[in-house]
What we know:
One of its GO terms (molecular function) is 8-oxo-7,8-dihydroguanosine triphosphate pyrophosphatase activity. It contains three helices and ten strands; from the N terminus they run βββαβββαβαβββ. It is mainly beta and 224 residues long. It has one domain (2-219): Alpha-Beta Complex (Nucleoside Triphosphate Pyrophosphohydrolase), CATH 3.90.79. It binds 8-OXO-2'-deoxyguanosine-5'-triphosphate (8DG).
Amino acid sequence: MDSFQITAKKVVTLVMVIDKEQRKILLGYKKRGFGAHLWNGFGGKVEPGETVKDGAIRELKEEAGITVKPELIQKAGVLLFFFEHDPVGLECHVYKAYEYEGQIQECDEMRPQWFDIADIPYDQMWEDDKIWLPTLLNEQDPFFGKMHFKRKPVEGGDAMATASTTSKLSTAVAAPVESMSPTPFGAAQPKNGPYAMFMHHVERNLPSAPKEASLDGSIASFES
Ligand SMILES: Nc1nc2c([nH]c(=O)n2[C@H]2C[C@H](O)[C@@H](COP(=O)(O)OP(=O)(O)OP(=O)(O)O)O2)c(=O)[nH]1
């Protein structure tokens, strides 16, 4: 497990928009960057000076074109992602929203689409989503999860000759991630993305939502 030890983490957000009446969920097809070619909720890095929730609302607006009021978006859980041989983990704050304003719009990064909840394309999503997304949909939140990923071997490529996954995230603004990755994105992309989940642990129905995770993989504090 030494190969999964982290010494730092990056905070990212993920917003799941749900139409309870129609039993539908809004997902976006990620056209480029980290998690390209997978369906996902909307989110990204939190910028300096903004709260995690404000970051989540901003990313939803940027990626899906819609607005949610701060009081109508709720923290559902925190997921801590470990990537083998990467000292930087990802602390992903997951939110749920049942109402929104504005017109859903495609952008250069994401193509939004509604899916029936009974028909979520888990085989084209990050592998961990089938573990925690039903928890959110079944209202067994707040939750806390930790997921360990190994890089998938890539045919004809040196999959391990990679710099920090998350250091690529930090440079994603300056340069397209595709150009920095040893794994060519596109047709050769392995199913569910370039990482295979190796281990996971999820705690459900917590008394309140986690606010922060510790580097050792426990909950450091809860939302008040
Ligand atoms: N559903 C799901 N989402 C994940 C997983 N891992 C992971 O980073 N994400 C999400 C969280 C973030 O929304 C996004 C990663 O952040 P990012 O900063 O690369 O997002 P981005 O490419 O949109 O970049 P930016 O907008 O911040 O510039 O991917 C996962 O295992 N499952």
